[in-house]
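Session log. Operator J.P. requested a structure for one protein chain; no other inputs attached. Running the standard single-chain path with C-alpha cell output.
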Amino acid sequence: MTATSPRPTVAVIPGASISRALLRGAAGSAPPAVALVLGIWGNWAPSAWTDEIVTIDVARRSWPQLMELLGRVDAVHGLHYVLMWLVGQLNGGLNEFTARVPSAVAVAVAAAGLGWLGRLLGGPRLGLYAGLLLAVLPTASRYAQEARSFAFVMAVAVLATGVLVKVLSSRAEGWWPAGYAVLIALLGWFNLLGLLLVGAHAVTVILWRPGRRVVVRLLLALTAGLTAVVPLLILAAAQSSAVGDAAPVTAGTPFNYFTWLLTPGQGTLPTALKLLLTCTALAALALLAVRRHKAPSLALAVGVPWLAVPPLLLMAVSLGHPLFAYRYLLFCLPALALLLALAATVVPPYQQLLLVHLTVVPLYASHQAIRQEDSRQWDTHAVIRTLRIHDAPGDAVLFSGARCGLIATAFKEAFTARPDLGTDPNRRHTRHPRPPARHPGPPATAPDPHPPRLAHHLQPSLHQRPPGRHPHRHNPETGPCPGRVPSGFPPQCAWGEHHA
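Structure written below.
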C-alpha cells in the first residue's frame, strides 16, 4: 500500500462569508427600496404642469379615443400613454399621485438595474454604491415624480446596458442577444431620442474589443431592435409638425447639462449650494481620472461613453435643428452615478467621507426644492385653490394662454359650472364691450349692483419662476392662463394681477 498525502484544506472564515452575503443582499435590495421611497415621498405636493396634465387627460380617454389621438399626434409617446391608460383602468382613474407612481417604480427598477450592472463590472461594493447614488440624486427623484416617460427610458437604458455587458462577457451565449434586441426596441418606443444610447454602446464595444462572433451577434440583435422601431419612425415623421423647437445649444450647454444631472432645482436651489454640489462631483471625477489604474477598465469603458456620447450627439443634431432638452438625456444619469461610485471605490476612506459630507446639505436642499408646490413650470394648485376661495355664482373662466385649457380638462371638478368665455358663444359677447384696461379699475358701466368685486386673473407660471415670485402674478412675456371673470363683468376685466 502506498500512503497518499491528505488534500489541502482551505480555511473558511464564517464572518467574511456572512459579510459578503450581506453586501450582495444590500446591493440588490437597498437601492430600489431607497429610490422607491424617495420617489413617492411628497409626490402629491408639486403642481402638475402641461405635459403631466396631457398624460392625465389622455389616460382618462376611451381606448378608441386614445388610438384616434395617437394616429394624429404624439405617437412618439404612444407606449407610455398606453401604459398609463392601463394604470388608469386598473386604478379606476388617475390623479396626480397615481399618475406619478409608475415613474417612481421605473426609477426603482433603474436603481436595481444599476446595482446589478455595478456588480457585473466591479463587484458588490460598486453595485451598492452606484445603485444608492442613483437613488439619492435629486434629478432621479424629480423624474420619479413626473407623469411622463423619461423615468421609463432611464430604466430601459440601464437594463439594456447591463444586458450588453452580459453579451460581451459571455461571448454572446444564450438568450442575451435576444434580450438586447427587445430592450433596444423598448427604448425607441418609449422615446426615440433614447436610441442615442446606441452610440455610447458602440464606443463601449470598440473599447471592449470582443471577438468577431460577438460583434456579429450584437449587430444582428441591434438590427432587429431598430427594425421594430421603424413603424414608429415613419409615424413620427408624419407628425413632426407637432414637435416644438428647443433652446439653441450654446457654449455653456455642456456645463449646464452636468449640473442638471446633479440637481434640476427649477431655480429654487441657491447658487452657492449648486456650485458646491457640482464642484464636489467634478472633484470626485478628477480623483477617478488620477486613480483610473485602480478602477476596473471595463467599468470605465461603459460609464464614460454612456455619460458623454449621447449629449454630444444630441448637441450636434441640435446645431441644425434645435432638439436639445436636458430631460431627453435623463437616461445618462445612471452613467454619472456609476462613475461617481467608481470614484468612491478607488479613493481612501477619509476622502470618501469628505465627499459625502460636502454633498449632504446641497442634496437635502435640492430634495426639498423639487417637492415644493411651485417647483414645476405651472402652478395649477394655486389656480384651483384661488378659484375655490374667490368663486361666486355666475362667475366664468377665460383661458387666454397657450394650452391653458388643459387645466380644465384634467381637473374638471374644479371648473364645473364655470363657463369658458373662450368657447361659450353665449358668454363670449357681453353687454358692455370695451377695450382692455391696462390698469385696474371699475368698469365704466357695471350691471352688477355690487361692483367692488373685481376679477382675479390666475397664472400658473409657464416659465421657470425665480424664488419669491407670487404664483398668481401675470407675466406679460408668457401670457396669462385662466382668468376668473365675475358675474356681469365683460371678459376685458380679467387683469393680470389679483385685486381684492
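Operator note: Residues 1-12, 428-480, 483-500 have pLDDT under 50 and may be disordered.
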